[in-house]
Amino acid sequence: MNPTATAPPAVGTSLLDGFSLEMTGKDVPKLEEAHATIPRGTRINVTFLGNEDLGMRLAAARAVKRLGFVPVPHISARRLPSQRHLEEFLTGLAADGTAENVFVVGGDPARPEGPYEDALAVIRTGLLQRHGVRHVGISGYPEGHPAIAEPSLWSALGDKSEVLGAQRIAGDVITQFGFDADAVLGWVADVRARGVGLPVRIGVPGPAGVRRLMTYATRFGVGTSASIARKYGFSLTNLMGTAGPDRFLHTLARGYDPARHGAVKVHFYTFGGLRATSEWVARFRHGDRAH
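RESULT FIELD:
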C-alpha cells in the first residue's frame, strides 16, 4: 500500500535535499544501471559485509566516484582482524581518492575479530585522519539495539561526537531505519537535548516488498507492531505487497522543527533497489503517485 498524497514542500525543499543512499560491494552493476537517475554528487554509502573482501569494497568505492557520486565506505570495527587490515583498507581508499568520507560502525559479530571493540576504538586510533579522512559518519538507534543497552548507546553516541570534535573531524549521525516517524523525531530531539549537535541523517527504507522489509526489520530489531505497520502504510497480513516510505516522510516533514531537531536529512536503505529508490524519490519530490 502506498499513500498518494502530494509531498508537502518541507520534504522536497529540505529533508530530501542532499539525500544519501546505501549499497553493498556487490551492487556495482545495479549502480551502473541506476546512475543516470541519481543526482550527481549524491553521497553513497558502501557497506562492509563479512562475505565481501578488500578488493570488492575498494572497487565499489571507485565505481561510486567514477560515476559522479561521493563514496562513503563503511568500516566495521568488529570485522577488522588487525590494525594492519584497517591500515590496508585506508591506504587503498587514499590511493583511489575515496578516503575523504567514511562511516564507522561497531558491526554485527558478537565478539571482535581483532583489536577493535567498537567504532569509538577505531576513531580513537587517529588512523582515519592520517589517511585523509575528513568526515566520519556514526550510528544512531532511535529504537534501540537488540544487543546493546540504551544507556550504553547514548554514552557511545556522546563519546564519538566528542572525540570527533576534539580531532576536528566533521561528522554526522546515520540512524537505523524504522517505521515510526514520530518516534524518530522524538529521538532526534533527545539527541539535541543531550548536547550532540552533529547533523542527523534519518534512515528510511527504500520502496520494497513487505516480506523483505520484515526480514530486515527482524534482523535489526526494528519495531513492527500492527499499529506501527498501519501508520507506515502496510499490513502485516499482506506480506506479498509492497511499501514505500510516503507516509513516513509526510509525517517526518510535518513534525520536523529545525529549532528543535537541528540539521536533518534522509538516508535511504535501498536493499539492493538503487534504481527503484532513486526513481521513487524523483516521483515523490514532484508530488506524483509513487508506485
